[in-house]
């Protein structure tokens, strides 16, 4: 008698939103890929992209809550699909059939990740960043700015208010 055990636990980020399909009898199936770091891969950066398949309630969970970039834990089993393509070449692919999925970030961390990819507005005066030389002086703000003593800024704020009041653009 042989003993076998097939269990996989992965933690990674979704590479895109799950793709949801239905079987002929109406059960949902979700497909998505996880980017998992640190695997033994031929990729230079060591990231593996692993196909995950979820059925039934797990597929519904994926459909409702999983989005690109979410860090999740997937627990499931390894399945190898084998088929013959149109050119009569035998093919196979590995996928993980998910039994359980959990979020691995707090809601606060998830929100921070959503905002981290937002574009940053650049002021017109700084849009030509390539023309700044290494010898240009850099002004420093002293520690008093962080101690609540803002009296050193009063003159600068007055100048800013004058500039804004003479500008016809809305604030």
In brief, what are we looking at here?
GO terms for molecular function: single-stranded DNA binding. The chain is of the alpha+beta class and 171 residues long.
Write up this protein:
The protein has 171 residues and is α+β, with helices and mostly antiparallel strands. It has a domain of 109 residues: OB fold (Dihydrolipoamide Acetyltransferase, E2P) (Beta Barrel), CATH 2.40.50. The chain has a five-stranded mixed beta barrel. Strand 2 and strand 3 form a beta hairpin. The protein is globular. The N and C termini lie far apart (78 Å). The relative contact order is 0.13.
Radius of gyration: 27 Å
End-to-end span in angstroms? 78 Å
Shape: globular
Q: Identify the CATH architecture of the domain at 8-116.
A: Beta Barrel
Task: Count all strands and give the number.
Answer: 6
Organism: Petrotoga mobilis (strain DSM 10674 / SJ95)
Pfam families: SSB
Subunit structure: Homotetramer.
Protein name: Single-stranded DNA-binding protein
List the defining traits of the structure above.
171 residues; 3 helices; globular; alpha+beta; 34% strand; single-stranded DNA binding; five-stranded mixed beta barrel; Primosome_PriB/ssb; OB fold (Dihydrolipoamide Acetyltransferase, E2P); 19% helix; ssDNA-bd
Write the topology of this structure.
Blueprint: E1 8-14, E2 19-22, E3 28-37, E4 47-55, H1 56-65, E5 71-84, E6 90-103, H2 107-116, H3 154-166
Parallel strand pairs: 4-6
Antiparallel strand pairs: 1-3, 1-5, 2-3, 3-4, 5-6
GO biological process, one term: DNA replication
Protein name: Single-stranded DNA-binding protein
Subunit structure: Homotetramer.
């Amino acid at each position: 008698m042989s003993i076998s055990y097939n269990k996989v636990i992965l933690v990674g980020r979704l590479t895109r939103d799950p793709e949801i399909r239905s079987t002929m009898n109406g059960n949902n199936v979700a497909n998505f890929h996880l980017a998992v770091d640190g695997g033994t891969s031929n990729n230079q950066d060591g990231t593996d992209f692993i196909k995950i398949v979820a059925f039934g309630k797990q597929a519904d969970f994926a459909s409702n809550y999983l989005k690109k970039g979410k860090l999740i834990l997937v627990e499931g089993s390894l399945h190898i699909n084998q088929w013959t393509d149109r050119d009569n070449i035998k093919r196979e692919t590995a996928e993980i059939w998910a039994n359980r999925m959990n979020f691995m970030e707090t809601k606060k961390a998830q929100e921070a990740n959503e905002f981290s990819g937002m574009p940053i507005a650049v002021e017109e005066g700084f849009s030509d960043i390539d023309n700044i030389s290494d010898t240009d002086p850099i002004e420093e703000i002293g520690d008093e700015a962080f101690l609540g003593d803002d009296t050193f800024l009063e003159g600068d704020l007055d100048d800013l208010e004058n500039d804004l009041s003479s500008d016809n653009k809305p604030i």
